[in-house]
Every structure is written in C-alpha cells, then in structure tokens.
Amino acid sequence: MENTKANKRFRSQEWFDNPNNPGMTALYIERYLNQQFTREELQSARPIIGIAQTGSDLAPCNKIHVFLMDRIKAGIRDGGGIPMEFPVHPIQETGKRPTAALDRNLAYLGLVEVLHGYPLDGVVLTTGCDKTTPAMLMGAATVDIPAITLNGGPMLDGWWKGKRAGSGTVVWESRRLLSEGKIDYDEFMSRVCASAPSLGHCNTMGTASTMNAMAEALGMSLTGCSAIPAPFRERMNMAYQTGKRIVEMVYENIKPSDVMTREAFENAIIVNAAIGGSTNAPPHLQAIARHAGVELDVTDWQKVGFDVPLLVNMQPAGEYLGESFFHAGGVPAVMGELKKAGRLHEKAMTVSGQTMGQNLTGWESQDRAVIRPYDDPLRENAGFIVLTGNLFDSALMKTSVISKDFRQRFLSEPGNEGVHEARAVVFEGPEDYHDRINDPALGIDEHCILFIRNVGCVGYPGSAEVVNMQPPDALLKQGINHLPTVGDGRQSGTSESPSILNASPESVVGGGLAYLQTGDWVRLDLNAGHMDALVDPAEWQARKDAWTPPVLECQTPWEEIYRKEVGQLAQGGCLELATAYQRVRQTMPRD
Ligand code: FES
Ligand code: MG
User: Fold this and answer.
1) Considering the domain boundaries, does residue 14 fall inside one?
2) Residues 349-369 pLDDT 10s
C-alpha cells in the first residue's frame, strides 16, 4: 500500500494516536503492546483490521478458520494493515439447544458492539455454519464498516457404500430406513458419520452452502469464495487474498451500504432459486436487508425468484455434493449462466471494487452434469411460492424439492392441478409429534396434511427446524415417504421435504395456525397461492375469541430478552428494536 494513501486518518487513530488526548491514548495503547504489537506499528497510520473468528471447539463447522488465520493475517499484513482477531459467540447448528437460531441475534449483537466499540477500520467476517453468515452480515450492515466475508468451505464429499452421503440429507434418508426396519442403530450411526469426512461445513446445498452463496451473490465475498472445500489449497489462497483485499477496501472506503443494495438482494434471490437453496435463506436475507435499510418483502421471493430454473444438481434437490460443485465452477459459474440469460443486475457493486458483471467475466459451467445451462435446467420455476390464507399471512414452499411422485399424489387431480383438500392432523410441537405420530387413533392416511405449531421465533424460542415431519411408520412401509407438512417453524436446508413453513405470524402470538384442530379440512391451492382451513367463519371467530396465549417458560435470561424483542420469520426474525440502528459507524463512541 502506497504511503500516500495513508494520509487519510483512520477511525482506529482516535484510540491509538491522538496527541490531543495523551491520557486516553496512552491507556488505549499500553495493553496492546504486551502481546504482539509495538507502539510504532499501532501509531503507523495503517488500518487495523478485525477478524471475526466464528470457529472454535464448540463450532466445528467453522473450526477451519482457526487454521486459516495465519493466511488471513499474512494477507492483511501484505496489504499494509494490522490484523486483530477476536472471538464471536459460537453458533453451531448441530450442537446448540434449544436451537442455534436463538443465537444468531445474540452473535449479531456482540459483533455490533465489537465493531463499534473497538479501534477497528475494517473487518474480515469468517463464515460457514448456517447462522454464522447472516449474523456476521447483519452486524456489518448495522455498523456499516468496510467488511468482507470469508467462508471456511464445505467438507469433502461423504461416501457410504459407493454412494455420496450428503450432510443432513443422509440423516433424513436413514431415519426413514430405520423406521422401516431396513437398517439398525449401528448402521444408522455409521451412515450419518460417513457424511462428515473432513473439516468444513455441510457439503450439501443446505443452509450453510446456501448462505455462503448468498454472501457471494450479494457481492460481499471475493469471486469464487463460497464453494471451495475447506481442506483445499485454494481455500488457503482465498484466505490470503481476502485479507489483502480488506485493507484496500478500507482505503477505498467500500462499505456494506455500497454493496448490499436492493439490486444485490434481487441477485441473491435469483441465485438462491438456481442453486436449489435453503428455505432458511428468506428469513436470513430479510434480516440482513432490514439491518442494511433495504426494502425487501417476503413476497419478493416469489415475485423476483419463482420463475428461475434450477441449475445446480446438488443434494437435497439433486445428487452431487460440494466437491463436484466446486469443480464445476461453484457460484460464479452459476451466476455466469444467469448473466448470459440476462437475469442479473450486473452493475451491482462488490467488495472487489468491481461490479458483479465485471467479476463474472469468463465464468461459466465447467461440468454440465452439475451446473446446467439456463436453457437446459433440471427443472423450470424452481423458486419459492409464498402462500397466504386464514392460517397465516405468509408461508413458504420450496418448489425445487417437490418430487414427481408427490406432485402426482397431491397436486394432479385432473382439471384441478395444484389444488388439494385434506384432513388436518395437528401437533403442538416436536415432543407431541414424536409421542403421537404412530398413534393409530389419529387415523393418518396418505391424504392427510400434518401441522406443527408453537415452534416459531417466540414459541420455541428461536424457531425450530422441525416442520419436515416424517409420516407414520405404517405409511413409510407402504412407500409413502412424504406427506404435506405445514408449520410456524423452519426445516433444515438439507431436507428434501416439500413443506409449507416459516408460517407468520406464529401460533403463540395469535397467528391462524393457533385455531386449527385435528379433523378440520384444509385446502391447498398452489396456483392461487392460498392455504385455508375450511372452517365456517363464525366457528373460526369463536375459536379466536376463546383463545388465550400460552404461558411460555424461559430457561435463560437471553431467551426472555429474545422473546420480548424478536419479530416474525417473514420479517427476518430480527430483534425489532435493533433495526432502528443503522450506519452506527457514523457515530463515534465516547472515550
Ligand atoms: Fe454446520 Fe451444517 S451443521 S454447516
Ligand atoms: Mg439446520
């Protein structure tokens, strides 16, 4: 970095080099000298770059970042900056009870405080596991400090008996086989463990790969960052380049608000459909957009993204896993195909300092079995359908995972395609579901729809991934692998279940699902985008009048704070009061 660029005064100099306030400057600087820094370097007018470390022993999906740290720091040093690593509250999807979703907003809050209150001029956001990516982007958006994401990358492909075993997806498949009596407990464990062969995050197109693709589509990572498998040498190179680039971004003053614009979010929605991305992407992107002050509505997912074809052949919508996706070109190859079809906002600015269109020059699919061209996709219209009706204001359905068999059984009544009427069976939560799903008294047959409630942001708390309910064992044994399921919670991005989920408002705050009873008939009309309980309006109103909100017991102080402040999934499940704080960097904290 040329010294001439350094005649700019950095925010960190208010702490470390302020001759007008020697008392505080001395206090700020002395303790940073007792580790690895000298006074000379901290007063050298070079930018100080934070590295938000999301990996730890408790967060194995992101643990690779512990090993990438040397390369990130080397890049920052070679770029002319001074790196300072700091920890982020762990958000491990598979380890945190009651759900990691509860901790996305907690890690977000922590990041905002660090970026605001410490002498930082820019930040590398390490990402990986599902909620780490949105938490980091939400925080960067609120503070609006120069920021760049670095994914840790997916694990290598898992294999079981000569077949690809994808993270999460193998769990859902193995659960069915166990229920059907086709495998035992030991084989169940072995199959699932085989899907995790190395460091890295889920190797399927689950929420982790999806959200990192979203970060890249938003323009917040370097081109090609998201798909590189964690153990590959390209991942180390990317860590170095990302470190180097953030220093330039500080000099160029490229901020999240320059990158995460409405156009960038529309690009992300389109990419999500093309990759067969997770149903968790809408609430996470919604949350990032709100903290960035960008108008985005849950209905935009259908308006902008529904007619986008599925290009990526990756589990759960397809067959391959992360290694093949990377070799086929990863996210820039998908975006290159979308660009050729005129589907992207090419002028959107990115962290590279170039537009998205410029970044994508020369990128296209390198393996058409894995990334299909736009005019020969795996399926047409692969985006989300946004449903409404008397059960909820909005709920989502991911169309890329609706199997032919499911479509024929439920949605192909002659002359009435897309419409299905069924008897509802209602569960009060995952415990109730597990207790009763095999109870013959419920009379669940292949024409029923399963509902689950009390599992949204306030209800669970945090919103649980439980909507992809498996049918009763008796139906599985007949070869019925899926019933339609509906709920106010979420489901894993690795699930191939064609559920209707993220129903908002949730039942515990008085959403329509609260008034449904087992035995009611419901109508699903996919063409009209409606789902309604076929209950007489007077009777429906009487149930509403008789309803009282359930008493919710919190086990930790954060649960109580979260429940008071959190909004609904359709609005991103944000801490509502936090959305009022924008561009926090423009205010300097007191000494
Ligand atoms: Fe962490 Fe899937 S569980 S990435
Ligand atoms: Mg999950």
Assistant:
1) no
2) 999 999 999 999 999 999 999
